[in-house]
Model the fold of this input.
Amino acid sequence: MKQESLVFLCTSDIAGKVRGKAFPESDFEKRLKRGIGWTPTNVQITCFDAIADSPYGALGDLVMIPDPDTMVVADYMDERPPERFVLGDIHETTGEAWECCTRSILKGALERLERVAGVTLVSAFEHEFHFKGGNCPLGSAYSASGFRAERDFAEALTAVMRTAHLGPDTIMKEYGVDQYEVTMKPAAGIAGADHAVILRELVRITAGRVGREASFTPLRSPAGVGNGVHIHMSMRHADGTPATYDPDGPHGLSKVAGQFVAGVLAYLDRIVAVTAPSVISYTRLTPHRWSAAFNNLGYRDREASVRICPVSGMSDIATAEQFNFEFRAGDAAASPYLALAAIVHAGTQGIEEGLTPPAATEEDLSLLSMEELNKRGFIRLPQSLEEALERFSGDETVTGWFPGRFAEVYAKHKKGEIDFLKGRKEDDVCAAYEEVY
Ligand code: GLU
Ligand code: MG
Done:
């Protein structure tokens, strides 16, 4: 069969979907300037392919321009040709960033952090997913046999991650049925989120190569184990030295990192609509699922929204270099760009307001009364997407972090998603999300 290689130029949009258009690879240089045409109302296509209420209607034209630094050639060195894709930014035809370009929104947030605090954010996204109709026998959680069941996948993924300049770190059989987890090395600035977008695609492509289908849905069934996206973060000064650790700071956090974490926790109930944006995300974000149900800081505690991660004195890497904290109230229904943008804005707000991080919790907060929680400054996170959206849309500080009409468009998009699912039982809702993510 005669074939010509194409490059798929794409964005990770409000639905957390990777959408775009392909063009002949031979046009790559030209496309770097000319981009491809894009339609504003595409941003209102929900994960279920329904079009939510759009302020743009049938009007307008945009241009998606590739960023050559994000070019991926997924070459498995087998009989099939490699798959090529590249991430892009969406611009107005006049050149400025479009108000709903998720990647540009994250760049804006990262620039704000640099301007306010003089630090660069470094991030590493940790992904959980499962194989549909998987392969793992009962009793395989964290096990060698569970790993072995998908070793072909795991080794092909590792190789292709390296080709795509993502740093392979660990891969394991997670606790849930047919659930796996992949971690990767951190990357600075926009690259951290680019790598998350790329990783999800590489997992899907690689799964297809070995005859599997992966799903990143936040929750496979109401009583099941969630697929979380945990975002590890640290900071660096302009000269590249680590800025997150202070042995005398609270739980080892430097002043700037402590204020950032405090901001994330203070604004968490108003940004969770962006970091955990599906209807079923709110079943995952309940106590005793090792996810996050309160706006608490945890020291090595896996049931905290932000967890200070362990460092090891035995490592060859200095403590200040290892030190990082992890955001756990996120999932893969969110575009990595938007999730990280919301976190970075909340953190930077915390720096501007000079907030102090709360003491880390070491107990089961679900056992405390509402009164006790309030007294100690804890908030139970919103328990539905509707409630989360109300808190997001109702806070002018939060909506003001985003450009132009973005916040309004976002809320309308999510309303369209909620409406699509109206009247369905939770099992069906889970099944629908499993199909689309
Ligand atoms: N599956 C859990 C989640 O939904 C996380 C388990 C873990 O700590 O890795 O976030
Ligand atoms: Mg995990």
